[in-house]
Design goal:
Length: about 160
C-alpha cells in the first residue's frame, strides 16, 4: 500500500504467518544496532526506522504512563525531519495527531543512533553539541529510564 505523503514509499504489513517471525526480526535488529558505527555518513537512515528500534530497545514496564517524544533528525542536505512517537507500557506508536511533546530530542542520525545504542554516551554527545534533549525534568528522566537498558538489550 502507498505510504502517507510520498507515493514512492510503500508500507508493508505482515500476515499472521509473517508476524510469527517478529522475534527473529527483533533479534537481528538488536544484533545490528549493537554493531552500527558511531558515524553514519553515507549510510541510509529512514526516520520511520526509529519506531522499530525504540520498540525493540524499550525497557519493558519502564513507563507507567504515556510519554510523547518528538525526534528532530538533522541532516545536512535535507534539513530537519521530525518524528513524533508515543511511548507507553504497551510499546511505541506513531502519533496520528501532533500533540505537545513531553520531550524533544534533536540531533543528527549518527548521534541519535549512538545515544539509543549506548545511553551513557548521551551526555558526551550533548556536550559536543550533537544531541539535545529538552522537556520537563521528570519527562526526560522517564525517557532515560525507558531506554536505560538499551545497551544491554542491543548486546544480547
Amino acid at each position: 500500500m502507498p505510504g502517507a505523503g510520498d507515493a514512492r514509499t510503500r508500507t508493508y504489513r505482515l500476515t499472521d504467518a509473517g508476524a510469527e517471525l517478529r522475534p527473529v526480526v527483533e533479534a537481528l535488529a538488536r544484533f545490528g544496532i549493537a554493531r552500527l558505527p558511531d558515524e553514519t555518513a553515507g549510510l541510509a537512515f529512514r526516520p520511520q526506522w526509529l519506531t522499530l528500534a525504540l520498540e525493540i530497545l524499550l525497557v519493558s514496564g519502564a513507563l507507567d504512563r504515556e510519554l510523547v517524544v518528538r525526534f528532530d533528525l538533522c541532516a545536512a542536505d535535507e534539513g530537519t525531519s521530525p518524528v513524533w512517537l508515543r511511548l507507553d507500557g504497551a510499546g511505541v506508536h506513531a502519533v496520528d495527531e501532533v500533540p505537545a511533546p513531553d520531550v524533544v530530542v534533536t540531533g543528527d542520525a549518527a548521534a541519535l543512533v549512538t545515544a539509543v545504542r549506548d545511553p551513557a554516551r548521551a551526555r558526551e554527545l550533548a556536550a559536543a553539541g550533537r544531541l539535545g534533549v529538552s522537556g520537563e525534568a521528570d519527562a526526560r528522566r522517564r525517557l532515560a529510564a525507558a531506554l536505560g537498558g538499551a545497551a544491554q538489550n542491543a548486546s544480547r
